[in-house]
Task: structure prediction
Amino acid sequence: MATKEEILAGLAKAVIDGDVDTAKKWAQAAIDSNIDAFEALTKGCQQGMKVMGDRYSAGEAYIPEIMLSADAMYTTMDMLRPHLKAKAVAPGTIVMGVIEGDVHDIGKNIVKMMLEASSVNVVDLGRDVPIAAFVDKVKEVNANAIGMSSLMTTCMFKMKDVVDMLVEQGLKPKVKVMVGGAPISEEFAKSVGADGYAPDAAEAVKVFEKLMRGA
Amino acid sequence: MVTSLERIVAALTMQEADRVPAGPLVCGAARRVYGITYDKAARNPELWARSLIQSQKMIGHDGFLLLVDLSVECAAWGQSVDYPIESTPITKALKGDPLIKTTEDYEKLEYVDARKANRMKDVIKIAEIVAKEKGKELGVMGFVYGPAGTLSMMRGLDKMSIDLKRNPSAVKKALKVINDVLLDYTVAQMEAGVHAIVLDVLFASKFIWSRSVYDEFEGQFCTKIADEVRKHNCVVILHNCGQATYFDTMIKWYKPTGISIHYLPDGVTSLQDLKEKWGKQTAILGLMDCPKTLYMGTEEDVIREAKAQIEALAPGGGFLLCSGCEFPPNASLLNARAMVEACKMFPYKKS
Result:
């Protein structure tokens, strides 16, 4: 019988290795051993995903490895979630999506994985998201933030429309806005009235945490 | 009087002509000189070619890049493509409608005739028109998206990246078929009269694939295209607008005459470092910042950035001032013109 530490470490390693079958075995072992599901999630699978996020930012892991790890993480999260004793308090809720007109979502998906690995509640609207849909969803789920991405200069300026709509509806400065994507820069973020900009997924988590602290 | 073509040839062969060639890579933006919407221009080779030629008369750049968009190649197999009215056409694989829906579908890809294929035939037509009318004085560069990029436009990069780990042989079978068709597409563009083929090898980047995955899933296939280009006495130019690109890997597989980039390559810390480390092995095309300078910046910003790049990279030849990626289709055309002006303002310094 594996110890709690061995199970958590095994879960994290299986996520790092992108090994879904082994990750499932360790998740089942956590359930069978009555390990707190929240601890298994945060110290096991999410911890593994954080390691991969750091490696990706450092240029030591690549998109195939990240995708395999995410597959393992989401599989184990699905197994562990029904065993959560109480709803964990997330550090915040963010509504995310690729701005209207653009469908390049791989960067947004990596940021989503890293936020979820940090227990952030992410509401993913997907790609080609209309301006109003961001704002409507923020109101519906009482989100703390919006995260928008774009890979195209022909679409990125629409981020300002979302910010303007938040202002018009009195939702700013309460709702923070983060933007990212290959053509996006700090200057552009400021020009559209965003509160934060992140050049990569690891930084996005830091920016979100900073915004939630009100810094 | 030095022609644009002579200017480009000189720079690519590490010589100094009268000034650095200017290549703002005006592609989708060109249609705006006629006021044609993107969706119409991208499906009408005659209009696209006329737009390229007319915009060059206005802007004054030294060469044409015959890129329409990155969904031209995948459409040859029947991948559906969305044509927004005022934005770049895009594969519907990224909108939830990929041609390759399961790993079994990789093995169903079959050879298609590039010269008759949907969209590829349009680019071949564009090449014929532009090369015939302008090829004697200006550079004409064909464009081919590499096999890995093309496959990702039929599957999605996320799913393809998982598949190449779990079902490598299926992915490779598809890549082999795609590469054979791209080879024919390359030959067709050369026969239409282009001087160079720009091969887009985006995945040779530290933020996409490792070097070994790149070798296995693109390099070993795509190298044949570069060999074929040389056999036709045309020039191999690579384009990679990803971050931290692998110059060593790209040079190993393709032996390019030039590499077009947006960001500094892997292991390079400055423009000076770039010139020192790679400037003798390949000509450099780039590195004007598309979103920051060409889209958001002023003409003065463009000239300032161009000056720094010309000073660092141009001495001794081997540099073409280009946009790091396609000139933003919605940016001010005056910024493209400012790139040309900068090349005139800062000629080679004669020693």
Summary: Chain A has two domains: 4-83, 93-213. Chain A touches chain B at residues 18, 56, 59, 62-64, 67-68, 71, 101, 103-106, 109, 127-128, 152-156, 182-185, 187-188, 191 (CB under 8 Å). Chain A has a mean pLDDT of 93. The longest helix of chain A spans residues 37-57.
